[in-house]
Amino acid sequence: MADFSASVTRLIDEFAKLPGIGKKSAERLAYHILRVPETEALGLASAIADVKQNVHHCAICYNLAEGVECAICRDPRRDPSLLCVVEQPRDLLALEQAGVFRGRYHVLMGRIAPLEGIGPDQLTIDALVKRVRAGDVREIIMATNPTLEGDGTALHISNLLGDQPVQITRLARGITTGSVLEFANKEILADAMTGRQKF
């Protein structure tokens, strides 16, 4: 790194800490910052500072918010009796972009992963149970990722809520439209077979 000034080296090192960014990509990003007008570079720095200072987790669902509650929890048009449980705010965003769900959410802030030292106490499961026991929820849609940890987390939550008068469902899984059976993996085929519907 002797070819770079101390400031450029620091910038490259900071970019390299980002997920999915290797050393070469970090160097390209640093050179990009050096090439753009100062206002554009400072705009990026300002946006990062604003996010770190103003964005926190919603007091109700743990989505990202700039106020006490997120926009979804404040929206009176959303059905509070339908609660979709997701692992991360980015999962919530993906479901919102699909544009079909009009209920509310609960973000777990991860999934139970014993091998990584993540247990139920490190997630927002207790807050979820309190929301359900408050009595407004009639259906919980488990939208955890279809992985061993995601399914285990969903099972743990459904066991905790087994005594509550709520219907617990999960997202449908299986073969996507336009795909070919021979290229589907066994987990997808198993989910498709067990989740089959009337024709």
Quick take:
The protein has 199 residues and is of the alpha/beta class.
Overview of the structural elements:
The chain is α/β, with parallel strands linked by helices. Among the domains are: 6-39, Helicase, Ruva Protein, domain 3; 77-170, Dna Topoisomerase Vi A Subunit, Chain: A, domain 2 (3-Layer(aba) Sandwich). Helix content is 43%, strand content 13%. The strands form two sheets. It has a four-stranded parallel β-sheet with strand order 4-3-5-6. A two-stranded antiparallel sheet has the order 1-2. Strand 5 (139-142), helix 7 and strand 6 form a beta-alpha-beta unit. The radius of gyration is 22 Å and the shape is globular. The termini are far apart.
What tags apply to this protein structure?
199 residues; alpha/beta; two-stranded antiparallel ribbon
Name of the CATH first level of the domain at 77-170:
Alpha Beta
What is the number of strand segments? 6
Q: What general outline do the C-alpha atoms trace?
A: globular
Helix and strand succession?
Answer: HHHEEHEHEHEHEH
**Estimated radius of gyration:** 22 Å
Q: Which fold name fills CATH's third level, the topology of the domain at 77-170?
A: Dna Topoisomerase Vi A Subunit, Chain: A, domain 2
Number of helices: 8
Q: What summary fits the major beta sheet?
A: 4 strands, parallel
Tell me, rounded to a whole number, the average pLDDT: 91
Question: Strands of the largest sheet, in order across it?
Answer: 4-3-5-6
Query: What CATH architecture of the domain at 77-170 do you see?
Result: 3-Layer(aba) Sandwich
Poorly predicted ranges (pLDDT <50, ≥5 residues)?
none
Helix content: 40-55%
| Residues in β-strands, percent | 5-15%
Distance from N terminus to C terminus (CA atoms, Å) equals: 64 Å
Could you say which structural class the secondary elements and strand pairing correspond to? alpha/beta
